[in-house]
Amino acid sequence: MQGKIALEEHFAIPDTLMDSAGFVPGDYWTQLQARLLDIHGQRLDLMDKHGIETMILSLNAPAVQAIPDVPRAIEIAKKANDFLAEECAKRPDRFRAFAALPLQDPEAAARELERCVNELGFVGALVNGFSQRDADTPLYYDLPEYLDFWSVVSKLDVPFYLHPRNPLPQDARIYAGHPWLMGPTWAFAQETAVHALRLMGSGLFDKHPNLNIILGHMGEGLPYMMWRIDNRNAWVKVAPNYPAKRRIADYFNENFYITTSGNFRTQTLIDAMLEISADRILFSTDWPFENVDHAADWFDTATISELDRQKMGRTNAKKLFKL
Description:
Blueprint: E1 4-11, H1 28-37, H2 42-49, E2 52-59, H3 70-90, E3 95-99, H4 106-118, E4 124-128, E5 131-132, E6 138-139, H5 147-156, E7 160-163, H6 187-201, H7 204-207, E8 213-215, H8 226-231, H9 248-255, E9 256-259, H10 266-276, E10 281-282, H11 292-301, H12 306-321
Parallel strand pairs: 1-2, 2-3, 3-4, 4-7, 7-8, 8-9, 9-10
Antiparallel strand pairs: 5-6
Helix pairs in contact: 3-4, 4-5
């Protein structure tokens, strides 16, 4: 398929590059760092070769979210956003941008998002999970201090991509002795799924029904759990004990999009289509952590209808991001 739009596609600046060093072993790091720092070379060649018209670029993880020094987090977010704006301006026909946000300070994050959208032409934000003001306390975005921030996102009417990060060490004891479960194998999905469920149950989408949250990796496992979340122990007639006014599945189906990033399996895609519909699924590759050819070659030949392929590969993104 030609003309695909991909939107979980990462880059790094020198200040954040080493945040990605632990995700690949040994000599692979030499290649990964070159991929992260490149925008107009190998990345663009792969886009041309595999039918990707546009990439929406975002900062690597955890980057800004893991900087407990709040002024430094604000500084790095602005530095990364300014750099990305300059790079996208060189090829506006091929690249668009997600803002990095210093959500350690919700007001500063709101102002930075306004700047990025209104002045730099960014199409939304990508945030790498919870933020930190210290080494021990994760800040999740259902907390009351983020209500004004979400009001700004709602007013700007841009999507918010909730990207994974690993849990803090004291919250990762279930993985002790099993380091292979960390990162994209399992911990990324579980951490992000719980964060998304917190947003759904908090009542956020009752206050701001136009909010659109994007989850990668075919929904971080959530599409396949929606029925159980809303129907466990259905014989016990007790009202849900969360603030939200509706079923969790209602918010997932109406306020969330998912992408194919790093999860290239047709059976999984079809399951997701049955749960959330092809109208709310978006093609992505997860470059440079995954290969563009693996993503594109699979998607272009997946046993789905051509109408659905066009929706997920291009037209859903054009509508969502007003491209």
